[in-house]
C-alpha cells in the first residue's frame, strides 16, 4: 500500500481550488503503474514523490493527467511543495521539464517556472476559436490569439466580457479544427482583464481528460508570454497579477503571477498560491 494525500490547491478554503493527489514512496512504481493510479484518482493531476537524483534537492516528482504524463504543472508543484515543507522553506523539485525551485513563506508557495514561454506559430483563426468555445466572433477581444509552450503548451484567447467568459463551452466540430490548426494543442485558456493587474480565466483541455480545470499554474505561467505579446507588460520591470479561475465551476481559485522583463524580453516567471489538506489514506499498488 502507498500513502496518499489530497490537497485543494490555489486556495486556503477547503472544497474550493483545484484538487490534487500526492502519492508518496513512488520510487519502485513503473510508468504504467503511475498512470493507472492517476486514472483511478481521476483528478486533473496526480503527483508522485520519489527520491531525488541529487540529494541536495528536496524530491524528484512525476506528474500525470488521467490520460498521460506531463513534464511540468503548476498546481501539483505548489501542493507538493507545501506538503513536503509545511512551513517557511526553500524546496527544489526535480521535474521532467527541469529543476523547479519553490519558496514557501507564511503558507504561500511560489515557484519559478522552469522554462520561459516560447511563442508557437500555429494558431487558429478567431472565427474558428470562437466557434470552438461556443461563442460568436464578437465575443472575442481584438487582441491576437496566442500559442505558447514551456513544457506544456496552451492557446490563449482574450474575451470581451465576463458574460462571454461565463458562456464558454467546448463545441465540435470547431474544437477539432482548433487542434488541427494548432498542431495538436488542445488546451485553451480563455481570459479577461477584470481590473488593474487582475485577470479572470478558464482553461479547457478535453484530450487530457480535463473538461475544465479549476486552477492551472502552468497555463498561468505561460500567460506571461501572451501578456507580453499583446503589450500588457512594461519593457523593463516586475509586474504582478492577481488571477481568478474556477469561478464558473463553483471552485474559485486564486493565483498570483509575477513577471520580470528586461528590454521587452521575459526574464523570469513566478506563480504563487496556497493549499489546504483535505484527506489522507492508502492506495493499493496496481
UniProtKB/TrEMBL annotation:
Q: Which InterPro entries match?
A: Phenazine_PhzF-like
What are the protein's GO molecular function terms?
isomerase activity
Domain of life from the UniProt record: Bacteria
A GO cellular component annotation here is: cytoplasm
NCBIfam families found in the cross-reference section: PhzF_family
For this protein, the record's PANTHER family field holds: ANTISENSE-ENHANCING SEQUENCE 1, PHENAZINE BIOSYNTHESIS PROTEIN
For this chain, the family text in UniProt reads: Belongs to the PhzF family.
**What is the name listed in the Swiss-Prot or TrEMBL entry for this protein?**
PhzF family phenazine biosynthesis protein
Amino acid at each position: 500500500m502507498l500513502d496518499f494525500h489530497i490537497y485543494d490547491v490555489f486556495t486556503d478554503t477547503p472544497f474550493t481550488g483545484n484538487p490534487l493527489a500526492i502519492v508518496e514512496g513512488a520510487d519502485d512504481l513503473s510508468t504504467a503503474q503511475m498512470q493507472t493510479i492517476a486514472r483511478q484518482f481521476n483528478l486533473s493531476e496526480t503527483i508522485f514523490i520519489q527520491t531525488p537524483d541529487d540529494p541536495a534537492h528536496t524530491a524528484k516528482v512525476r506528474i500525470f493527467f488521467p490520460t498521460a504524463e506531463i513534464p511540468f504543472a503548476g498546481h501539483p508543484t505548489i501542493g507538493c511543495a507545501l506538503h513536503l515543507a509545511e512551513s517557511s522553506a526553500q524546496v527544489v523539485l526535480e521535474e521532467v521539464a527541469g529543476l523547479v525551485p519553490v519558496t514557501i513563506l507564511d503558507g504561500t508557495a511560489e515557484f519559478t517556472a522552469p522554462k520561459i514561454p516560447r511563442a508557437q506559430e500555429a494558431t487558429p483563426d478567431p472565427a474558428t476559436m470562437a466557434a470552438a468555445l461556443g461563442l460568436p466572433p464578437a465575443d472575442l477581444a481584438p487582441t491576437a490569439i496566442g500559442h505558447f509552450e514551456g513544457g506544456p503548451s496552451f492557446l490563449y484567447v482574450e474575451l470581451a466580457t465576463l458574460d462571454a467568459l461565463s458562456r464558454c463551452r467546448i463545441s465540435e466540430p470547431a474544437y477539432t479544427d482548433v487542434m488541427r490548426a494548432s498542431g495538436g494543442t488542445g488546451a485553451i485558456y480563455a481570459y479577461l482583464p477584470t481590473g488593474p493587474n487582475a485577470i479572470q480565466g478558464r482553461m479547457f483541455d478535453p484530450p487530457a481528460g480535463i473538461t475544465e480545470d479549476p486552477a492551472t499554474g502552468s497555463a498561468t505561467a505561460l500567460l506571461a508570454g501572451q501578456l507580453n505579446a499583446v503589450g500588457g507588460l512594461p519593457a523593463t520591470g516586475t509586474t504582478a497579477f492577481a488571477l481568478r479561475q474556477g469561478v464558473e465551476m463553483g471552485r474559485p481559485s486564486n493565483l498570483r503571477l509575477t513577471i520580470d522583463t528586461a528590454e521587452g524580453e521575459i526574464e523570469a516567471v513566478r506563480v504563487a498560491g496556497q493549499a489546504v489538506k483535505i484527506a489522507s489514506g492508502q492506495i493499493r499498488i496496481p
